[in-house]
Give the backbone structure.
Amino acid sequence: MTDNIFNEARKRLHKAMKYMNISTDVEEQLKYPKMSIAASLEIRMDDGNRRAFKAFRVRYDDTRGPTKGGIRYHPDVNLNEVMSLAFWMTFKTAVVNLPFGGAKGGICVNPKELSPAELERLSRAYIQAFRDFIGPNKDIPAPDIYTNPMIMGWMANEYSKIMGMYCPAVITGKPIALGGSKGRHDATGRGGFYVLNILSERLNLHPETTTVALQGFGNAATHCAKLLHEKGYRVVAISDSKGAIYSPDGIDPVSMIRYKQEYKSITNIPLSDNIQTITNTQLLELPVDVLIPAALENVITEENAHNIQAKVILELANGPVNNAADEILIEKGCIIVPDILANAGGVTVSYFEWVQNQTCYYWSSSEVYDKLKTIMDTEALKIWGIKTDHDCDLRTAAYIHALSRLSEAIEASGTHAYFSKKD
Ligand code: NAD
């Protein structure tokens, strides 16, 4: 993670702005986060010690609605990273036209080192610290790396206790029994699958002859892998933080999901002869048609971009390809389906969950999937159209698309031209 990740994130906005005639007001409004807050979360550990954990929440922009974004538990979480993620969320919610702005949060922790009771105390402490910063019509958190439905349930419960009333709409990604939405658990992977599928002809991909490698085998990747496998794509490699496995003949993601639960890491799974272990670096450079980074930021940079052989990169992770790598890959003819479109399925179903919580009327899985598919297909095709019209890369097209919606909202309150009229 580089210190200038936020500046790097903003460069993508500036690239899109070159194709558009937007007012300086828009540029000013989107220059910095609306609000950032840091806190020290102090909890009692099981051994009696008291420990403090750094935590952050950033609300980037709320012109289009309350801010929305996940909470990440990771030892490397820092303010710069959270700001970049909140910035991306602002564009992501605009890409899929949700009535939300962008936010993000995180705790500097390795959750694998905590007991379940410590994890619960820490998650509740996050809500106690940020209780005035969040709210169902203000800022709505959700899961991200190493946070899950149970954690979201604890957090919703803590907020409700503080407010003295039931407030499920303060957070999304909750267990279904606690006001979660059907279809939220697989929404990010499913959304990415819908996007790849609707663009497959344009990307010249035919499932039966298309090989796929996924980096990271968590929430986003597992569900996408399963749907791709069902559609006939050949998943040849998967990985987790410990390492990767590869088989040119194909891997059955459904069995791997089961094995990963049993053996904890992909690298502990007893392998048949046709499956070999490789490193995460090797996985990224495999001769595959589609590469799906679904773990952390900045895994494809100027250091390894020249070695990437995939024709298409579907960014299920946020920010896996840096700007320098973008240029190298575009030059090589690789098409990158950008994060703000590819992984927007998660926030879209989070929006559905929020709507269901606010109306107390709950939808079936098929209603959720149909609505998700309509949104992902529609926005993916619009973005492809912008790419064609402007003869630009797909990421820039997605930013142009989001920026048009953001600038329309910002300019609706008046622009420099309106306020400087002297008649
Ligand atoms: P997760 O915690 O469920 O899974 C993360 C996976 O990445 C795990 O398999 C982990 O072992 C692996 N991993 C961690 N460090 C790694 C490393 N250095 N190399 C290779 N693999 C590594 O998280 P998730 O929710 O699937 O999120 C993954 C990515 O998708 C993140 O970038 C997140 O921001 C993005 N995303 C998630 C959602 C969502 O709804 N879950 C929505 C939008 C975007």
About this structure: The chain has 15 helices and twelve strands. The first helix runs from residue 5 to 17. The two ends are 52 Å apart (CA to CA).
